[in-house]
Amino acid sequence: MKKLLSLVAVVALLGAGCSFNSKTDVDANVNAAMEAEQQNAAGGTMLEGSGEGNLDNDMVGGDAKVNVDVDADVNVGLKTHTVAVQNFAFATKTLTMKKGDKVTFTNKDSVAHTATANNEAFDLTLNANSSATLDTSALAPGTYKYYCIPHPSMTGTIIVE
User: Which residues contact 108 (CB under 8 A, 6 or more apart)?
Assistant: First the structure.
């Protein structure tokens, strides 16, 4: 049971946006939190498990250790930046951010625009009086110059670090 709870805790962390960049040992000590539940479930008798088991074992005593191999970047402290599009211009000409940050383009004009990377790495349609968001997690670090297809004089730059 503890191993299952440990696995559930890891899945919950990953689902909440936490991720790890290397092999990580995840230790879970849930004795104190589960003591009351164990007594209720066992009719007042504490159940003790021993040794290593699999998720099918109903082990509720002792410490459980789960080794998790995850190959992902840590996404801590990411931000959402805003670029206003107004009067046929991108209000922020150059924006520097971390990989994984998001950029919300808010079109305040009554006509449609785009935010299209010169190297075609992204192409957002910005309908009149609406917003669109670019997630930079798929972009490699570097400089991305962009423009508006119907209005090529509208330009900007995103730097992903």
Answer: 84, 85, 86, 129
Helix (H) or strand (E) segment spanning residue 5:
helix 2-15
Helix (H, G, I), strand (E, B) or coil at 146: strand
Mean pLDDT in each 10-residue stretch from start to end of the chain (161 residues)?
44 47 37 44 46 46 55 69 98 97 98 98 97 97 98 98 96
What the block records as the tokens of 149 is 């297809």
The rounded distance, in Å, linking the Cα atoms of 135 and 52 is 42
Within 10 angstroms of residue 33's Cβ, the number of other Cβ atoms is 11
How many angstroms separate the CA atoms of 126 and 147, rounded?
12
Cβ count within 10 A of residue 38: 19
